Amino acid sequence: MELKIAAITYNVNRQKPVQDDIICWLDFEELNDSQIVCFAMQEVPHAEMLKTTSNTWCEQITDWMKDKSFSLVNKICLVSNMLLIYLKMDLLQMIDQIDERWCRSSLFGTIGYKGTISSRVLFRSGISIVFIASHFFAQEKYLRDRINQYKQSLYCTFPEIDCPKKHIIWLGDFNFRVEDFPDSQQLLYALNKLDDVDMLTKIATSHDQLLKAKRFKKVFEDFEEGIIRFKPTYRIMVGSGKFDQQRIPSWCDRILYKSNKNSNISPLLIKQYCSCRRITLSDHFPVSAKFLLGISSQINILTKDELAVWPCYFEHIPRWEQLIPLFCRLTIPSQFWTKYSSNFDWIGLYSSSIEFINKPLNWVYLLTCPLDESGKYCIEFPSLNCGMYRVGYFCTKKKCLQGLSNPFYVKEEPNF
């Protein structure tokens, strides 16, 4: 079978999200058809990072993805940079571990306004996918600084992990510019005269700093990129979608990828690489890529008893009464407990859609849950409102769920 992955990068230019623009941006078949979706966002408003506003990009995107049966499994922030990773619900039980890294580049590495963040998602089948989001130094003259920043950011690829099933998707606002054009008007004239998308590829190949540096093996030497058949994504006049006449347009926003070279392992295949010119909220256009990854059929096997695929498992939770506190039991095998569990692990109560793994409706530390005579953890939550719920076990060492209950319904209290 094939795993479908969508990767999207967008420099939002400190703009607040607008719901109509979110719908215009995300309502396309390639995203809805994917099983994993990664968002890399740059220049996110400080109010969102400081949590002083309820209108956030993360909330708006998560609300949209929830309706498509996606759950947010990891969110990483570094000053104004954000990385979001969503998975379809039926893939949650196949994740073994999630790891994170970051690299600050601004002010000699002391702050991360310009920097790199990454998340490594390890599946139980041994497949490892590393998602990396970067915001490199701006302006054409700082090419050497961008190259140095790339080299520093290689730490975020988890280079010490030599896994034959390792794949990397690196995306972001790399800020590599178009050069060797005397002024913006010449390039704008050339872009406006284009009738053939192949000419865009020729311009990018001849004048794009990233592709030229890549040919000289200075950056991304082992990475691949889809063919550029879209117009430059920067600098755009906000609200109009037209190029800034005073700036040389450039392909700043890019997505590259890499698979370990192993003849027995299917590599990442890029199926689409494009920009979305429908959204004009920022001075950048977002860029997206669609990938296919051939995987072992075991990654998506579901037995009749769905809970059997989790290393730790809950007893079946029946339909519950609204006035009765919720009670459930969790089994953690001794071998798993010895290697991975700790008293800092927690049990989370979620709505059945599980919008964000790290943000349950309620939670309790595993430390507070007593063991019964059979060695099962006994978990209790206060009485719940009417609705559909699930209970999950979050392992702090693995940074992901390691057990999830069946969906159960809490019914309204009877009227007497």
TrEMBL record:
<protein>
    <submittedName>
        <fullName>IPPc domain-containing protein</fullName>
    </submittedName>
</protein>
<dbReference type="InterPro" id="IPR000300">
    <property type="entry name" value="IPPc"/>
</dbReference>
<dbReference type="InterPro" id="IPR036691">
    <property type="entry name" value="Endo/exonu/phosph_ase_sf"/>
</dbReference>
<dbReference type="GO" id="GO:0048488">
    <property type="term" value="P:synaptic vesicle endocytosis"/>
</dbReference>
<dbReference type="Pfam" id="PF22669">
    <property type="entry name" value="Exo_endo_phos2"/>
</dbReference>
<dbReference type="GO" id="GO:0004439">
    <property type="term" value="F:phosphatidylinositol-4,5-bisphosphate 5-phosphatase activity"/>
</dbReference>
<feature type="domain" description="Inositol polyphosphate-related phosphatase">
    <location>
        <begin position="1"/>
        <end position="300"/>
    </location>
</feature>
<dbReference type="GO" id="GO:0098793">
    <property type="term" value="C:presynapse"/>
</dbReference>
<dbReference type="InterPro" id="IPR046985">
    <property type="entry name" value="IP5"/>
</dbReference>
<dbReference type="GO" id="GO:0046856">
    <property type="term" value="P:phosphatidylinositol dephosphorylation"/>
</dbReference>
